[in-house]
């Protein structure tokens, strides 16, 4: 059973404990970042099963590489880099085949409105999935995960100016696809 002190601990303390072999500390990190990592992978890959696999693989790689984590960046940034690289590998190997799914609609909403909302969601999701991987990663990390441009640059290993350019091109690409 995890103590309250471990659950509320700062990431750096948890990373230090996990490096010393404390599985409970690493479990807290996994619980803390499981959803954000999954969301990045889902938006990058467009497939729930591929996103789950990529997220699990990211945590396995993080555990195995924890000794090499220098702490130059936040643990979350380092983890986003791992999952983003895993997604790049999956995308390079094959194209996604399952569409993103919409959130559960409000049961009291008008069926026509629900259908319209789902159609808009599918169009945006398709537009994002049609982007080149580098643009997609920058857009997902900035717009959906809320990372600052500097953090996205660190995750992707490029300059903040390059991130801004990728995001700009991504937005134009999605807008162009929606205009069709």
Whole-number mean pLDDT: 86
What CATH architecture label of the largest domain applies?
Answer: Orthogonal Bundle
Question: Strand percentage, roughly?
Answer: under 5%
Poorly predicted runs: none
- Please bin the fraction of helical residues: over 70%
Task: Give the class-level CATH name of the largest domain.
Answer: Mainly Alpha
Identify the overall geometry.
Answer: globular
Question: Quick one: biggest sheet?
Answer: none
CA gyration radius, whole angstroms: 18 Å
Q: Roughly how many Å apart are the termini?
A: 54 Å
Number of helices: 9
CATH superfamily membership of the largest domain: RNA polymerase sigma factor, region 2, helix turn helix motif
Please trace the helix and strand order, writing H or E for each element.
Answer: HHHHHHHHH
CATH-defined fold name of the largest domain: Rna Polymerase Sigma Factor, Chain: A
- The number of distinct β-strands equals 0
Q: Structural class from helices and strands?
A: mainly alpha
How many structural domains does the protein architecture include?
Answer: 2
């Amino acid at each position: 059973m995890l103590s309250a002190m471990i659950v509320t601990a700062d990431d750096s303390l948890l990373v230090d404990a996990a490096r010393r072999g404390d599985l409970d500390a690493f479990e807290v990190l996994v619980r803390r970042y499981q959803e954000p990592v999954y969301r990045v992978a889902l938006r990058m890959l467009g497939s729930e099963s591929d996103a789950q696999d990529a997220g699990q693989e990211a945590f396995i790689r993080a555990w195995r590489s924890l000794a090499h984590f220098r702490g130059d960046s936040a643990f979350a940034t380092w983890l986003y880099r791992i999952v983003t690289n895993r997604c790049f590998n999956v995308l390079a190997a094959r194209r996604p085949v399952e569409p993103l799914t919409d959130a559960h609609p409000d049961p009291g909403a008008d069926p026509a409105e629900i259908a319209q909302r789902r159609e808009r969601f599918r169009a945006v999701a398709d537009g994002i999935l049609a982007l080149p991987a580098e643009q997609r990663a920058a857009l997902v990390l900035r717009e959906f995960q809320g990372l600052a441009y500097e953090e996205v640059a660190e995750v992707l290993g490029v300059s903040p100016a390059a991130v801004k350019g990728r995001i700009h091109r991504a937005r134009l690409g999605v807008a162009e696809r929606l205009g069709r």
